[in-house]
Amino acid sequence: MNFTNLISQILFCLMILSSFVNSAFSFNLSEKKLLALKGDRNTQYQLGLYYQAGKDKDIIEGYYWMKMAARQCHLSACRYLGRAHLYGRGTSSSIDLAKKWFLISSNQGNSNSMQDLGHCLELEGKWMESAAWYKTSHQHGNTSALTRLKNISQNLTKPQSEKLDFMVLKLQSYISAKRKSSVRCIPSFKNSIKRIELANGYSYWGESRSGQPHGYGKKMLGQVATFQGEFNMGLEHGYGTSFGSDGEISFQGQWRKGIPLVSKQETVKDLTNY
Predict the structure, then answer these.
(1) What's the pLDDT tens digit per position in 38-70?
(2) Does a structural domain hold residue 212?
(3) Can you give the residue range of the structural domain that contains 223?
(4) Mind spelling out the 3-state secondary structure of the chain?
(5) Higher-confidence residue: 127 or 247?
(6) Mean predicted confidence (pLDDT) in 127-153
(7) Considering the domain boundaries, does residue 57 fall inside one?
(8) Is residue 156 part of a domain?
(9) Looking at the 3D structure of the chain, how many domains does it have?
(10) What is the pLDDT of residue 240?
(11) How confident is the model at residue 186 (pLDDT cuts 50, 70, 90)?
């Protein structure tokens, strides 16, 4: 079998698999969402993957489900959030938030997140910390981390190179202690997850407190999403995305007490629903 035929067969198998996954999710999507809202982190992660690349692709909704799973210590979901923030996919671009989620996953032994964390530190020019995480990632089985380590080793001073193994040893000890700890990752939701009927035909599902949208969730008018993102006691507050009646994004960015923060040069269209 030549290389071209092999690639064709692989692509065909991936197409069949994608079709099967989409079909399965389409048939059970409502049940899966109900199960996910009840707190099943594996279903939350599966929904995140589905909305990342399924037939109903929606990276903003994919981020929502991944965040729910990550906050229940699903390590792959933590890594997804880290990469989402690193590249601004479905959420705000923030290297600090990317490092936060990579670190949570790395502390539980995820070697891919260790490499991603090393990459963030490399971008910041923190060569010593970056090298330590690359080397730790390689020791946890990630072979590609060794190449990254070699690429930045030239930036280390001689004293830093001599201290690298000691720093890696400290990281390994810390990770081992974290994995044995009864307190893993970060606390799960402090807010309850529920569907709330709002005024004027609107509804909401997501995190809530005292019967109001609070945390991360989605606001809808009938079956149409009008806003997805962060809320504070009923108002859009934090990072979020609003949608016009045509389903197109009308604004994406920071909100404060229900108002989008827009510079003088920017315009916001079709925010009449608010």
Answers:
(1) 778 999 999 999 988 877 788 888 888 898 899
(2) yes
(3) 192-260
(4) CCHHHHHHHHHHHHHHHHHHHHHHHHHHHHHHHHHHHCCCHHHHHHHHHHHHHCCCCCHHHHHHHHHHHHCCCCHHHHHHHHHHHHHCCCCCCCHHHHHHHHHHHHCCCCHHHHHHHHHHHHHCCCHHHHHHHHHHHHHCCCCHHHHHHHHHHHHCCHHHHHHHHHHHHHHHHHHHHHHHCCCCCCCCCCCEEEEEECHHHEEEEEEEECCEEEEEEEEEECCEEEEEEEEECCEEEEEEEEECCCCCEEEEEEEECCEECCCCCCCCCCCCCC
(5) 127
(6) 95
(7) no
(8) no
(9) 1
(10) 84
(11) low
Q: Is residue 240 part of a domain?
A: yes
Between 29-38, 215-224, 239-248, the lowest mean confidence (pLDDT) is in 29-38
pLDDT tens per residue across span 165-174: 999 999 998 8
Q: Find where tokens 């960015």 sit.
A: 253
